[in-house]
Amino acid sequence: MAGEFKGKVALVTGASMGIGRASALAFARRGAKVVVADVDVAGGEETVRLIRKAGGETLFVKTDVSNAADVEALVKKTVATYGKLDYAHNNAAINRGIGVMTAAYKEEDWNIQVDVNLKGVFLCMKYEIPEMLKIGKGTAIVNTSSISGLSGHPADPGYVGSKFGVVGITKSTAMQYAKTGIRINCVCPGPIRTSLYDRVVAAIPGVEEATLERNPMGRIGEPEEVAEAVVWLCSDAASYITGVPLPVDGGLAAI
Fold first, then answer.
1. Which of 50, 69, 91, 136 has the smallest C-beta neighbourhood within 10 Å, fewest atoms?
2. Active-site annotation holds for 159
Protein backbone atom coordinates (compact mmCIF):
# COMPACT_ATOMS: atom_id res chain seq x y z
CA MET A 1 0.00 0.00 0.00
CA ALA A 2 3.03 2.28 0.30
CA GLY A 3 2.90 5.05 -2.26
CA GLU A 4 -0.89 5.08 -2.55
CA PHE A 5 -0.91 8.79 -1.64
CA LYS A 6 2.23 9.76 -3.55
CA GLY A 7 1.89 13.36 -4.73
CA LYS A 8 -0.87 14.07 -2.19
CA VAL A 9 -0.81 16.56 0.68
CA ALA A 10 -2.43 15.78 4.03
CA LEU A 11 -3.03 18.05 7.03
CA VAL A 12 -3.54 16.59 10.51
CA THR A 13 -4.52 18.66 13.56
CA GLY A 14 -3.94 17.43 17.08
CA ALA A 15 -1.00 15.51 15.66
CA SER A 16 1.38 15.77 18.61
CA MET A 17 0.28 12.47 20.13
CA GLY A 18 -2.27 9.67 20.12
CA ILE A 19 -4.67 9.33 17.21
CA GLY A 20 -3.36 12.46 15.46
CA ARG A 21 0.24 11.27 15.50
CA ALA A 22 -0.80 7.81 14.30
CA SER A 23 -2.81 9.40 11.49
CA ALA A 24 0.07 11.64 10.40
CA LEU A 25 2.38 8.63 10.30
CA ALA A 26 -0.18 6.59 8.36
CA PHE A 27 -0.55 9.29 5.69
CA ALA A 28 3.23 9.54 5.43
CA ARG A 29 3.66 5.77 5.06
CA ARG A 30 1.38 5.95 2.04
CA GLY A 31 3.54 8.63 0.45
CA ALA A 32 1.68 11.82 1.32
CA LYS A 33 3.41 15.01 2.36
CA VAL A 34 2.09 15.71 5.84
CA VAL A 35 1.50 18.97 7.69
CA VAL A 36 1.50 18.38 11.43
CA ALA A 37 -0.51 20.90 13.45
CA ASP A 38 -0.89 21.26 17.22
CA VAL A 39 -0.49 23.72 20.09
CA ASP A 40 2.00 21.29 21.62
CA VAL A 41 5.27 22.25 19.93
CA ALA A 42 7.43 19.52 21.48
CA GLY A 43 4.95 16.78 20.63
CA GLY A 44 4.39 18.10 17.13
CA GLU A 45 8.08 18.28 16.42
CA GLU A 46 8.48 14.71 17.67
CA THR A 47 5.82 13.59 15.19
CA VAL A 48 7.75 15.39 12.45
CA ARG A 49 10.94 13.67 13.56
CA LEU A 50 9.29 10.25 13.37
CA ILE A 51 7.96 10.93 9.88
CA ARG A 52 11.31 12.16 8.61
CA LYS A 53 13.10 9.22 10.22
CA ALA A 54 10.85 6.95 8.15
CA GLY A 55 11.71 8.90 4.98
CA GLY A 56 8.60 11.07 4.78
CA GLU A 57 8.23 14.76 3.93
CA THR A 58 6.60 16.91 6.58
CA LEU A 59 6.48 20.20 8.44
CA PHE A 60 5.09 21.38 11.78
CA VAL A 61 2.85 24.43 12.20
CA LYS A 62 1.90 25.53 15.71
CA THR A 63 -1.86 25.97 15.60
CA ASP A 64 -4.68 26.71 18.02
CA VAL A 65 -7.67 25.37 16.11
CA SER A 66 -10.07 27.53 18.13
CA ASN A 67 -8.41 30.63 16.67
CA ALA A 68 -9.51 31.56 13.14
CA ALA A 69 -6.30 33.44 12.33
CA ASP A 70 -4.22 30.41 13.33
CA VAL A 71 -6.26 28.03 11.20
CA GLU A 72 -6.22 30.34 8.19
CA ALA A 73 -2.43 30.67 8.54
CA LEU A 74 -2.10 26.88 8.82
CA VAL A 75 -3.91 26.27 5.56
CA LYS A 76 -2.03 29.08 3.82
CA LYS A 77 1.30 27.64 5.01
CA THR A 78 0.28 24.20 3.76
CA VAL A 79 -0.54 25.50 0.29
CA ALA A 80 2.45 27.85 0.16
CA THR A 81 4.79 24.97 1.00
CA TYR A 82 3.27 22.07 -0.93
CA GLY A 83 1.06 23.78 -3.50
CA LYS A 84 -2.31 22.27 -2.54
CA LEU A 85 -4.36 20.38 0.04
CA ASP A 86 -5.84 16.96 -0.75
CA TYR A 87 -6.73 15.50 2.65
CA ALA A 88 -7.42 16.79 6.14
CA HIS A 89 -7.88 14.99 9.41
CA ASN A 90 -9.41 17.49 11.82
CA ASN A 91 -8.59 15.67 15.02
CA ALA A 92 -7.61 18.24 17.67
CA ALA A 93 -9.66 17.93 20.86
CA ILE A 94 -9.49 18.32 24.61
CA ASN A 95 -11.39 16.87 27.56
CA ARG A 96 -12.27 18.89 30.67
CA GLY A 97 -14.72 18.30 33.49
CA ILE A 98 -14.43 14.53 33.57
CA GLY A 99 -16.93 13.03 35.99
CA VAL A 100 -18.61 16.38 36.77
CA MET A 101 -22.40 16.59 36.86
CA THR A 102 -24.01 19.13 34.52
CA ALA A 103 -25.28 21.34 37.36
CA ALA A 104 -21.74 21.60 38.72
CA TYR A 105 -20.04 21.94 35.35
CA LYS A 106 -17.81 25.02 35.01
CA GLU A 107 -18.78 27.38 32.22
CA GLU A 108 -15.13 27.86 31.25
CA ASP A 109 -14.71 24.09 30.82
CA TRP A 110 -17.79 24.00 28.59
CA ASN A 111 -16.58 26.95 26.54
CA ILE A 112 -13.07 25.68 25.89
CA GLN A 113 -14.29 22.23 24.85
CA VAL A 114 -16.82 23.65 22.42
CA ASP A 115 -14.21 26.09 21.11
CA VAL A 116 -11.57 23.42 20.45
CA ASN A 117 -13.60 20.30 19.73
CA LEU A 118 -16.47 21.80 17.71
CA LYS A 119 -15.59 25.32 16.59
CA GLY A 120 -12.13 24.01 15.76
CA VAL A 121 -13.60 21.50 13.30
CA PHE A 122 -15.79 24.23 11.79
CA LEU A 123 -12.83 26.61 11.35
CA CYS A 124 -10.67 23.90 9.83
CA MET A 125 -13.30 23.02 7.24
CA LYS A 126 -14.01 26.71 6.59
CA TYR A 127 -10.43 27.24 5.43
CA GLU A 128 -9.70 23.78 4.01
CA ILE A 129 -12.71 23.53 1.72
CA PRO A 130 -11.86 26.51 -0.56
CA GLU A 131 -8.46 24.92 -1.29
CA MET A 132 -10.02 21.52 -1.92
CA LEU A 133 -12.57 23.04 -4.28
CA LYS A 134 -9.63 23.96 -6.54
CA ILE A 135 -8.94 20.24 -6.91
CA GLY A 136 -12.41 18.74 -6.58
CA LYS A 137 -12.76 15.01 -7.02
CA GLY A 138 -10.49 12.93 -4.83
CA THR A 139 -10.23 15.35 -1.92
CA ALA A 140 -11.45 14.30 1.50
CA ILE A 141 -11.92 15.51 5.06
CA VAL A 142 -12.20 13.29 8.12
CA ASN A 143 -13.23 14.84 11.42
CA THR A 144 -12.75 13.12 14.77
CA SER A 145 -15.91 12.72 16.81
CA SER A 146 -16.31 9.93 19.38
CA ILE A 147 -18.52 7.00 20.23
CA SER A 148 -19.76 9.49 22.85
CA GLY A 149 -20.96 11.63 19.95
CA LEU A 150 -23.30 8.83 18.88
CA SER A 151 -24.70 7.38 22.08
CA GLY A 152 -23.71 9.78 24.84
CA HIS A 153 -21.82 9.17 28.06
CA PRO A 154 -22.45 10.45 31.59
CA ALA A 155 -18.78 11.20 32.31
CA ASP A 156 -18.50 14.63 30.66
CA PRO A 157 -21.47 16.58 29.21
CA GLY A 158 -19.24 19.21 27.61
CA TYR A 159 -17.15 16.68 25.74
CA VAL A 160 -20.20 14.66 24.70
CA GLY A 161 -22.04 17.77 23.51
CA SER A 162 -19.10 18.91 21.40
CA LYS A 163 -18.67 15.46 19.85
CA PHE A 164 -22.37 15.19 18.95
CA GLY A 165 -21.85 18.56 17.27
CA VAL A 166 -18.96 17.18 15.20
CA VAL A 167 -21.22 14.43 13.84
CA GLY A 168 -23.86 17.03 12.95
CA ILE A 169 -21.55 19.47 11.19
CA THR A 170 -19.89 16.59 9.33
CA LYS A 171 -23.22 15.39 7.95
CA SER A 172 -24.43 18.88 7.06
CA THR A 173 -21.20 19.93 5.32
CA ALA A 174 -20.90 16.60 3.52
CA MET A 175 -24.31 17.15 1.95
CA GLN A 176 -23.42 20.71 0.95
CA TYR A 177 -20.29 19.69 -0.95
CA ALA A 178 -21.15 16.17 -2.14
CA LYS A 179 -21.37 17.18 -5.81
CA THR A 180 -18.05 19.04 -5.78
CA GLY A 181 -15.96 15.90 -5.30
CA ILE A 182 -15.03 16.65 -1.68
CA ARG A 183 -16.01 13.80 0.63
CA ILE A 184 -16.48 14.57 4.32
CA ASN A 185 -16.81 11.91 7.00
CA CYS A 186 -15.96 11.46 10.65
CA VAL A 187 -14.55 8.69 12.79
CA CYS A 188 -16.10 7.91 16.15
CA PRO A 189 -13.44 6.20 18.26
CA GLY A 190 -14.45 4.12 21.23
CA PRO A 191 -11.99 3.51 24.08
CA ILE A 192 -8.55 4.04 22.54
CA ARG A 193 -5.25 3.86 24.41
CA THR A 194 -4.40 7.58 24.43
CA SER A 195 -3.52 10.16 27.08
CA LEU A 196 -7.13 11.39 26.99
CA TYR A 197 -8.39 7.89 27.75
CA ASP A 198 -5.79 7.51 30.51
CA ARG A 199 -7.12 10.70 32.16
CA VAL A 200 -10.64 9.29 32.15
CA VAL A 201 -9.42 6.04 33.70
CA ALA A 202 -7.53 7.99 36.39
CA ALA A 203 -10.54 10.19 37.16
CA ILE A 204 -13.23 7.50 37.38
CA PRO A 205 -12.40 4.42 39.45
CA GLY A 206 -13.42 1.14 37.82
CA VAL A 207 -14.19 2.67 34.43
CA GLU A 208 -11.65 0.57 32.53
CA GLU A 209 -12.92 -2.68 34.00
CA ALA A 210 -16.48 -1.68 33.13
CA THR A 211 -15.42 -0.71 29.61
CA LEU A 212 -13.66 -4.00 28.99
CA GLU A 213 -16.67 -5.94 30.25
CA ARG A 214 -19.09 -3.99 28.05
CA ASN A 215 -16.97 -3.92 24.89
CA PRO A 216 -17.85 -6.85 22.58
CA MET A 217 -14.18 -7.25 21.60
CA GLY A 218 -13.13 -7.08 25.24
CA ARG A 219 -10.14 -4.80 24.71
CA ILE A 220 -9.02 -1.19 24.37
CA GLY A 221 -8.23 -0.01 20.85
CA GLU A 222 -4.95 1.43 19.62
CA PRO A 223 -4.46 4.84 17.92
CA GLU A 224 -3.17 3.10 14.79
CA GLU A 225 -6.51 1.33 14.37
CA VAL A 226 -8.30 4.67 14.16
CA ALA A 227 -5.62 6.04 11.84
CA GLU A 228 -6.18 3.18 9.41
CA ALA A 229 -9.88 4.06 9.26
CA VAL A 230 -9.00 7.71 8.62
CA VAL A 231 -6.67 7.03 5.70
CA TRP A 232 -9.13 4.51 4.24
CA LEU A 233 -11.91 7.14 4.31
CA CYS A 234 -9.56 9.48 2.40
CA SER A 235 -8.62 6.84 -0.16
CA ASP A 236 -10.30 6.03 -3.46
CA ALA A 237 -11.48 2.79 -1.86
CA ALA A 238 -14.07 4.92 -0.02
CA SER A 239 -15.04 6.95 -3.09
CA TYR A 240 -18.82 6.52 -2.61
CA ILE A 241 -18.83 7.29 1.12
CA THR A 242 -19.64 10.72 2.51
CA GLY A 243 -21.48 12.09 5.54
CA VAL A 244 -20.79 8.95 7.58
CA PRO A 245 -19.91 8.82 11.29
CA LEU A 246 -17.81 5.65 11.35
CA PRO A 247 -17.50 3.88 14.73
CA VAL A 248 -14.04 2.49 15.48
CA ASP A 249 -15.02 1.04 18.81
CA GLY A 250 -14.72 -2.72 19.12
CA GLY A 251 -18.45 -3.11 18.59
CA LEU A 252 -19.80 -0.72 21.26
CA ALA A 253 -22.11 1.05 18.81
CA ALA A 254 -23.77 -2.28 18.04
CA ILE A 255 -24.98 -2.74 21.61
1. 69
2. yes
Among residues 159, 177, 197, 240, which one is catalytic? 159
Domain ranges of the chain: 9-249
Question: CA torsion sign, 97 to 101 to 102 to 107?
Answer: negative
Q: In what order do the strands lie in the sheet with 33-38?
A: 58-62, 33-38, 9-13, 87-90, 140-144, 183-189, 245-248
Write out the DSSP string of 126-147.
HHHHHHHHTT-TT-EEEEE--G
User: What is the sign, positive or negative, of the torsion defined by CA atoms of 222, 243, 85, 116?
Assistant: negative
Pick the CATH number of 9-249 from 3.20.20.10, 3.40.50.720, 2.30.42.10, 3.40.50.300: 3.40.50.720
Q: Which helix (H) or strand (E) holds 213?
A: helix 207-214
